[in-house]
Amino acid sequence: MGRKNAKEAREYRKSRIRRKVHGTPERLRLSVYRGNCHIYSQIIDDVRGVTLVAASSLSPELKGKVKGFTVETAKQVGELLAQKAKAAGIENVVFDRGGYRYHGKVKALSEGARSGGLKF
User: Fold this and answer.
1) I need a labelling partner for 17 at 20 to 30 A (CA). Which of 8, 44, 69, 96 fits?
2) Which domain, by its residues, includes 54?
């Protein structure tokens, strides 16, 4: 394989995770993307290939509540996603960390979603 840059290494980890993690109609997939300045999450039905619920640090509901790209921001995004999912009738999800370590902002987002009522 040889050496990889950080992006290629993350894509490889992502594909390894995606082999095991699939969203079904009973347990949808909660996917996370972490950019340099924002964090994005969505709940996806992989069978139909449809995004049902999405939230990010750019969401209008969080306007004025978040400052910068912090762990607290990620937690609020998770809580917002859980709130939207509850409104759509979604309770059970499987967590797809997208190749990122389960640490820091990714962990905070999942804990926020759990505290909002989603079951992993």
Assistant:
1) 69
2) 6-115
